[in-house]
Amino acid sequence: MSKVFYNSKLAKTILFKGYNTIMLFGYIFTKKESLMPSSLRHELIHCEQYKECIIAFLIPFAILCIFYSWWWLPIYFLMYYIIYGVEYLISLIYNIFKTLIKKEKFDISEINHKAYKASAFEIEADKNEEIEDYLDHRKGFAFIKYYGKL
């Protein structure tokens, strides 16, 4: 199980209003003194996703580091966040154009929230956070099946 840092100064410093908990590099940081089991499970799902990204990119980044430069190493540990960010940007652009084409009210806060929730990582965690034994039965790379789903 991953380490949880409750009442975290880091979480209080970096998280926007309305957000209380974040998973960073396999560790969980929260502004709160305790977490609901579903919230903890949500973040633990992200921990598993992070570990799987580390596993998936081990060989390509080992080759890059050995044959080209060790400067690739920091990027290796950021791959989960790079994938998350790319998904977010694609969804953000999609939702902006969708809003403009449909001539709907342009609410950047709502568009941002939709883009955030459209990540395969986030969809898996949201859909399964209430299932008590989900992590015991979760198949590896389960987030992949959520790609392309909104």
What can you tell me about this protein's structure?
The protein has 150 residues and is mainly alpha-helical. The protein is built from eight helices and three strands, in the order E-H-E-E-H-H-H-H-H-H-H. The protein has helices spanning 9-14, 37-56, 58-67, 73-77, 79-101, 108-117, 120-128, 134-137; strands at 4-5, 21-24, 27-30. The protein has a three-stranded mixed β-sheet. Helix 2 runs antiparallel to helix 7 (120-128) and helix 5 crosses helix 6. It is globular. It starts with a strand and ends in a 13-residue tail after the last helix.
Task: Write a short abstract of this structure.
The protein is mainly α and 150 residues long. It contains eight helices and three strands; from the N terminus they run βαββααααααα.
Highlighted features:
8 helices; mainly alpha; three-stranded mixed β-sheet; 150 residues
Helix-strand layout with pairing:
Elements: E1 4-5, H1 9-14, E2 21-24, E3 27-30, H2 37-56, H3 58-67, H4 73-77, H5 79-101, H6 108-117, H7 120-128, H8 134-137
Parallel strand pairs: 1-3
Antiparallel strand pairs: 2-3
Helix pairs in contact: 2-7, 5-6
- Which bin fits the share of residues in helices? 55-70%
Radius of gyration: 17 Å
Number of strands: 3
Determine the number of helices (DSSP H or I, runs of at least 4 residues).
8
- Report how far the terminal alpha carbons are from each other: 29 Å
SSE ordering: EHEEHHHHHHH
The outline comes out as globular
- Give the biggest sheet: 3 strands, mixed
SSE-based structural type: mainly alpha
Average pLDDT works out at 93
Strand order of the largest sheet: 1-3-2
Poorly predicted regions:
none
